[in-house]
Amino acid sequence: MSLRLREFPNRGFLVWFALSAGIVAWIIHLSGFAALVTFVHDHGGYFWLFDVGNGVTLAVTLVALWLSWRMAEAGSDEEEGTEAGRMRFLGVCGLLINSINLMLIALEGSYVYFLRTGR
Exposure winner among 34, 62, 90, 112, fewest CB in 10 A? Predict the structure, then answer.
């Protein structure tokens, strides 16, 4: 699938992924870590689950952030009322949403290294 500027799809899976993947990754990160904390504390050798959780959720959010940037770059002025304007607006919204979720995941993911749960 090509993601050249003029060929970015104006609807479908990629648009939904760009707008919602960061939110879903943050929810999975938050609830997954909350569920794993007791297990890792009781069975000390599974601390690597936190590393994998951080890496996967950060990677998914970075991909969504990149797709949002491509959407914002592919669009034109939002005030025109065209599909390209809509794509630019959605891309800018995706940039904001995914940036916030990226910061949340990184901040919450850093707690496990400071608290030393199960080590």
Answer: 34
* pLDDT 10s digits, 60-109: 999 999 999 988 887 676 666 777 788 888 899 999 999 999 999 999 88
Model confidence, pTM:
0.82
- DSSP for 50-96 reads HHHHHHHHHHHHHHHHHHHHHHHHH---GGG-SHHHHHHHHHHHHHH
106 burial level (CB within 10 Å; 0-12, 13-18, 19+): middle
What span, in angstroms and rounded, lies between the C-alpha atoms of 108 and 104? 6
CB 7 within 8 A of CB 84: no
Distance CA 27, CA 93 (A): 19
Burial of residue 56, with CB atoms counted within 10 A of its CB: 0-12 exposed, 13-18 middle, 19 or more buried: middle
* Separation of alpha carbons 6 and 12, rounded Å: 16
Dist CA 25 CA 84 (whole Å): 27
